Amino acid sequence: MLKYNNRIVITGGSGRFANAFKKIEVNTSLKLYYPEKNKLDIMNIKSIQKYLKHIKPKYLIHLAGLSRPMNIHERDIAQSIDKNIIGTANITKICSKLNIKLIYISTCYVYPGLKGNYSEKSSLYPINNYAWSKLGGECSVMLYKNSLILRTSVTEKPFIHKKAFYDFKTNFIFHEDLVTKIIKIKDKKGILNIGGKSQSVYDFAKKYNPKIKKASARKMFGKKMPLNITMNIDKFKKLTND
Ligand SMILES: NC(=O)c1ccc[n+]([C@@H]2O[C@H](COP(=O)([O-])OP(=O)(O)OC[C@H]3O[C@@H](n4cnc5c(N)ncnc54)[C@H](OP(=O)(O)O)[C@@H]3O)[C@@H](O)[C@H]2O)c1
Q1: By alpha-carbon position, which residue is closest to atom 12 of ligand 1?
Q2: How many C-beta neighbours within 10 Å does residue 220 have?
Q3: For a pLDDT cut of 70, what percent of the chain falls above it?
Q4: Pairing of strands 173-174, 213-215
Q5: Distance spanning both ends of the chain, measured CA to CA
Q6: If you measure from the C-alpha of residue 199 to the centroid of ligand 1, how many angstroms do you get, rounded to a whole number?
Q7: Angle at Cα 106 formed by Cα 102 and Cα 110, nearest 5°?
Q8: Which residues form ligand 1's pocket by a CB distance below 6 Å?
Q9: Predicted TM-score of the model (pTM)
Q10: Residue 160 pLDDT more than 80?
Q11: Of 30, 79, 86, which Cα lies nearest the Cα of 62?
């Protein structure tokens, strides 16, 4: 299939992450397409194929799926399996058939969250069902070599909460700050940890809201809650010259 090098299809066009792509004029030479479910349904192979054959993109950024609330993945495992595992497998099959570069947004929660500083080669032990469903998606994407898996930790701008965890560390980055970086590295392949500096959610949030109050993740979620989900993002920093 002849492809347009400047075309990127973004699945999950009505979602939070996709909205950040829409807000930012990433690069005027790129043309971004945001199909909604009625045009590209990740549960329907034929609709995926029909849409992609029509648009002929070089890249597809896969954002469609089930994300929040996090506990929906414990309450409704059928939906979690369908959207995040089977839906991603469907997308992978068609991208592979049409040789479209697939960029899959995964999560830092595939790491165990105990010691922190996890590199792309660290052992995985997803912390909850959401993370297992994202790892399920990663498994199909890994079979297709023209792909990039991005493990990340994102939050909405402005930081909406009045309290932030001082005892939970991650690599929070705002969606808006991440999307331009994703565009920059779109030609890379393999697995990449991406995000901001390793720090507590409180330290991240207080830069934007000095009045923010402290809260304890340990107190709120109990002993089983992994408290250090930080990733080593050196590879990503080198690639983006940050
Ligand atoms: N937000 C984060 O902090 C974060 C962090 C790491 C990774 N991620 C990943 O990034 C991706 C996007 O996250 P998000 O926060 O933007 O999620 P979101 O706001 O829940 O958006 C999900 C999108 O998927 C669409 N969708 C659902 N079922 C579909 C189907 N069968 N066919 C086509 N589209 C379908 C939804 O459309 P409808 O609304 O029409 O159902 C919606 O546009 C997810 O895969 C998530 O796991 C997010």
Answers
A1: 63
A2: 12
A3: 98
A4: unpaired
A5: 36
A6: 26
A7: 140
A8: 11-18, 36-37, 40-43, 63-65, 67, 83, 87, 105, 107, 134, 152, 154
A9: 0.96
A10: yes
A11: 86
Over residues 168-193, the pLDDT tens digits come to 999 999 999 999 899 999 999 999 99
CA of 84 to the centre of ligand 1 (A): 9
Nearest CA to ligand 1 atom 2: 154
Closest ligand 1 atom, CA of 137?
45
CA of 144 relative to ligand 1 center, distance in Å? 22
In the reported structure, the alpha carbon of residue 64 is separated from the centroid of ligand 1 by a whole-number distance in angstroms of 4
- Phi, psi for residue 74 in degrees, rounded to 5: -90, -35
Q: Which residues contact 113 (CB under 8 A, 6 or more apart)?
A: 127, 226, 227, 228, 229
List strand residue ranges (DSSP E) for the chain, in order. 4-11, 31-33, 57-62, 101-107, 147-152, 154-155, 163-165, 169-170, 173-174, 190-194, 199-200, 213-215
- Set out the domains of the chain in order of their start, with CATH numbers: 4-161+171-198+230-240 (3.40.50.720)
